[in-house]
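TA notes, week 10

Several of you asked for a full example with nothing omitted. So below is the full record: C-alpha cells for the whole chain, then the designed sequence directly under it. When grading your own attempts, check the secondary structure regions first.
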C-alpha cells in the first residue's frame, strides 16, 4: 500500500473514531444528567453500587456560583467598576476581533467582576459594601462525581 493510501485509511479511521467518541460523550452526558436527576429526586447525595464487579460511588456535591448584575454594579460604582473586573474568556472570545494585544483598557467590555478584587477593595474600605447589596445572586448548583473508591491502603500503597 502506498503512503498516500495509508494516510487516507488512517485518517478515515481517525475521523470515524472521533465521530464515535462524540456520540459516546453525548450519551455519557445524558446518562450523567439522568443519574443526577434520580439522586436529586431521591434527595440523596451519595450512592454506592457494584457494577461489573467494580464498586462505583456517585456523589452529588453542591457548588456555589455567583452571578453579578453587571449593569447595576457599573451604574453604582462608576469609574470604580473597572477596579473589580478581571478578564472573562467568554467575553474575550465574543469581542476578540475588535481587541488589541493589550486588553487592560477593554475590561469594561470583556471583564467580569472578580470576587477576590471585590473582597480586597471592600475590606480596604476603597469601595463601600453597600454598592454590592442586591447586585448579585448566589446560585447553588450540584456537581455529580462518578468515581472509583481508592484501593485498600489508599492510592499510594504498595498493594496496588
Amino acid at each position: 500500500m502506498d503512503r498516500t493510501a495509508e494516510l487516507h485509511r488512517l485518517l478515515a479511521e481517525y475521523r470515524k473514531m472521533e465521530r464515535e467518541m462524540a456520540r459516546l460523550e453525548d450519551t455519557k452526558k445524558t446518562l450523567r444528567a439522568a443519574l443526577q436527576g434520580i439522586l436529586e429526586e431521591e434527595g440523596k447525595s451519595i450512592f454506592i453500587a457494584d457494577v461489573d464487579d467494580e464498586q462505583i460511588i456517585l456523589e452529588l456535591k453542591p457548588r456555589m456560583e455567583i452571578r453579578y448584575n453587571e449593569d447595576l454594579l457599573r451604574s453604582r460604582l462608576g469609574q470604580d467598576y473597572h477596579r473589580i473586573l478581571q478578564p472573562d474568556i467568554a467575553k474575550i472570545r465574543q469581542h476578540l476581533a475588535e481587541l488589541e494585544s493589550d486588553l487592560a483598557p477593554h475590561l469594561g467590555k470583556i471583564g467580569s467582576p472578580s470576587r477576590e478584587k471585590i473582597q480586597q477593595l471592600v475590606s480596604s474600605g476603597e469601595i463601600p459594601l453597600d454598592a454590592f447589596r442586591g447586585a448579585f445572586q448566589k446560585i447553588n448548583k450540584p456537581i455529580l462525581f462518578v468515581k472509583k473508591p481508592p484501593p485498600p491502603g489508599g492510592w499510594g500503597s504498595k498493594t496496588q
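The chain has a mean pLDDT of 90. Use that as a sanity check on your answer.
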